[in-house]
Amino acid sequence: MVRSPDAVALAEAAATLRAGGLVGLPTETVYGLAADATNPTAVAKIFAAKGRPSDHPLIVHVADAGGVGHFAASVPGFAQRLMAAFWPGPLTLILPRRPEVAAAAAGGQDSVGLRCPAHPVAQALLRACAEVGVPGLAAPSANLFGRVSPTTAAHVRGEFGSDLLVLDGGPCRVGIESTIVDCSRGVPVLLRPGQLTPEQLSAACGQAVLLPDAVPSAAPRASGTLEAHYAPSAKVRLMNAKELQTALDMLQGVDKAPLAIAVWSRTALRVKSTVVLARRMPDDADATAQQLFGQLRDFDAQGVKLIWVETPPDAPAWAGVLDRLSRAAAS
Ligand code: TXA
Ligand code: MG
């Protein structure tokens, strides 16, 4: 059931997690499906519920930087500077894992992904959990494997039904998943783009954050980096404004069919067909990220078969949005 995150619901959520159950967790990026990161049986329930292969590592959420020592074997200086600059916030760091902890959550990797979320409900739950002996929460995005990430409590209920306890933290402020920086190989490497740009990250850590292509050695498996991911049921296609307008012009006069095509564009386009549902994308990257997954879900709910999206600008601030849209379009 979806619950308002009052003291009673928070205590119940902490007790559920302590007992090895799952809870829907609001964060500022997307909602997570949380379990006690140190309980392999509880972690197995996440993989089963999502249909996610059990060798895909999960992110472990901690209340503050003080919680890192429980899971990480060592923290390089550049990682400490990233934490100081961006935690709590939408940044996940991959660090060498203490071998005796959270092996299941880490999907067997010798590293662990750690994140300290800023959302007040996530913070309150992590603190309540720490008090009952749960030092961190493993939480991937609360969606079935490969599907669109949830940015409202209602999205989570739609994925997992009403038996799951979901704390309602409102719509997510960031809207796309955290930026992931691998800090386990001596130099910082960007594994997943998000709201924080490489420029911001490099400035904060005092050295260049590299793109994965610059580091050819085997990258750890990251499902968020599989080519086809974040996919709605409708086919997503990216086009520039001119291509979009040409395609729309070809539909002129096509009015009998049911709603079939959704268009999401920054550019104002002429639509002369009733089979097209047109929505405007914000001019601003952060606002677009915030709306992205909800918009894809909404288009699906309207029953369209195609979603045509105007390709985002080729600018650092848009990298997270472009990454998620490209993956949605790859399936
Ligand atoms: O914003 C977020 O990060 C959200 C919220 C709930 O915190 N969580 C999220 O989790 O996106 P998930 O499981 O959907 O994506 C986690 C990503 C995956 O691509 C996973 O493979 C990668 O993090 N990851 C986790 N631990 C890792 C590790 N030890 N090495 C490499 N990649 C890791
Ligand atoms: Mg995910």
Detail the topology: elements first, then pairings.
Layout lengths: L1 E2 L3 H12 L4 E3 L6 E5 L3 H11 L8 E3 L15 H10 L4 E6 L14 E5 L4 H12 L5 E2 L14 H8 L4 E3 L11 E4 L6 E4 L5 H8 L29 E5 L1 H10 L10 E5 L10 E5 L4 H17 L4 E5 L8 H11 L2
Parallel strand pairs: 1-8, 2-8, 4-6, 5-9, 11-14, 12-13, 12-14
Antiparallel strand pairs: 2-3, 3-7, 4-7, 5-6, 9-10
Bound molecules: threonylcarbamoyladenylate (TXA) and magnesium ion (MG).
Concise account of the structure shown:
By secondary structure, the chain is α/β, with parallel strands linked by helices.
Bound molecules: threonylcarbamoyladenylate, magnesium ion
* Uncertain residue segments: none
Q: What top-tier CATH class of the largest domain fits best? A: Alpha Beta
How would you classify the helix and strand content by structural class?
alpha/beta
Largest sheet: 10 strands, mixed
Number of strands: 14
What percent strand?
15-25%
Tally of separate helices: 9
Mean pLDDT: 94
Q: What does this 3D model show about the protein?
A:
- With 331 residues, this protein is of the alpha/beta class.
- It has two domains: 2-214, DHBP synthase (Alpha-Beta Complex), CATH 3.90.870.10; 235-329, Rossmann fold (3-Layer(aba) Sandwich).
- Helix content is 30%, strand content 17%.
- The chain has nine helices and 14 strands.
- It has helices at residues 7-18, 40-50, 77-86, 120-131, 153-160, 198-205, 241-250, 285-301, 319-329; strands spanning 2-3, 23-25, 32-36, 59-61, 91-96, 111-115, 137-138, 165-167, 179-182, 189-192, 235-239, 261-265, 276-280, 306-310.
- The strands form two sheets. The protein has a ten-stranded mixed beta sheet, sandwiched between helices.
- β2 (23-25) and β3 (32-36) form a beta hairpin.
- α1 packs across α4.
- The longest helix is centred in the C-terminal third of the chain and has 17 residues, at 285-301.
- The radius of gyration is 20 Å and the shape is globular.
- The mean pLDDT is 94.
- Bound molecules: threonylcarbamoyladenylate (TXA) and magnesium ion.
- Magnesium ion (MG) is lined by residues 140-141, 149, 224.
